[in-house]
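[scheduler] slot 2 assigned
[scheduler] job type: sequence-to-structure, two independent chains
[scheduler] chain ordering preserved from manifest
[runner] begin chain α
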Amino acid sequence: MEFIEIEENEWVLKKPNNELSIHNIIEFLYDEPAIVIEELIEFTEKYPQHIDALHHLAIAYEIIEQPQLAYLFCQAAVSLGLQSLPDKFNWSSANINWGHLTNRPFIRAYHALGLHYFNMQLIKEATTIFEHLVSVCPYDNIGARYELIICYEQLKDTKNINKLCQRYPDEDLYEG
């Protein structure tokens, strides 16, 4: 698994040809999370670099109110994605577009890690993740800008609040 540059500064997560979908496993995630956890653990034993499976394990552990395990699986998913970035990748100029379906598991997991940091009151760490997401996802399809504005507000960072509001002029991001 690696991020490849398909155009200048346009990155896509290339997965192994044998990577399987977990849709049939996660279909009942909210109805039967314990069963889904068992199946996802079994799946990740066979496919340990499956970002989406690790991310959904994190979601399942959140559902059954085991936030420490949720955080660990979320970290594992993000770590795989970050390790897949090549040395020439630059957060300020790169695009990891939501439109490429293979990018979505990493984007979702990275966003979830930002939320974990935010909930743990690690605002600077959360801010970094949300800034990265807003930077590399041209349309911010996951909505990281909404958490980012709250982070900037908590950090009393009016300069970046103004920049973010200028980037999204058609939205009421800040009422300050």
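[runner] end chain α
[runner] begin chain β
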Amino acid sequence: MSDDLLSSSTTLNRLSWLRPSQSFLNTIIQLPTTRWILFNNGKHLIIRSQNNSKPTSSLAYLTTQDVEPLLGQKPYFGQAKDLGDLIPDTKPTHDEHHFRPTESIRHRGPRVVFLGLHETGERDANSLPSSDFTDPESTVQKLQGTPYFSMDISSIGLKDDDLHRFLGNTILGQKGNNLIWSEPKPLSPWLDAFAAGVFASARSMVDWNQRNKV
């Protein structure tokens, strides 16, 4: 299992054998448990609050419902060249656990990174075994934990008013949280080991995608 972990501190299972599957990604992205870490031109979204007159910060985890206005038209993954069309899904067998590399491609919208699954509890017979994987959609039913995605929204080119409106319409924004874009350094003292590991992985992978556009 260690090959599928982003790091020992995050315990995110990368589900490497599922990552190229558009069926899997299009299903898992819609789960109500799915959470997002957003960046805007390298700055990350945080919650800034006052605690005994001293400001504190924490990562802002958004839902897919929150970020849907930024994702563009479905399907989100496996986009064919024509708008709305889907690349056909392959069906691997027990002897062939792989998909075509371009099957989960996004031709439109900001690049999206699936960081992995934060599994809850101990891995047991009900955990997701790669050797038994045959169908992406039914496999989602076996997932126990929180899927994490990330993206940098700077490529969308939102104006300040639109960006402010977007943040205000998120679940966190509607609850009165102060959502701001921040450089990494001010956040570091407030992160626990898990959040720090997930953030570091998200920042690294999103930055790589931004620097390696095709």
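[runner] end chain β
[qc] chain β: The helical segments are 22-28, 64-71, 136-140, 160-169, 171-174, 184-187, 193-211.
[scheduler] slot 2 released
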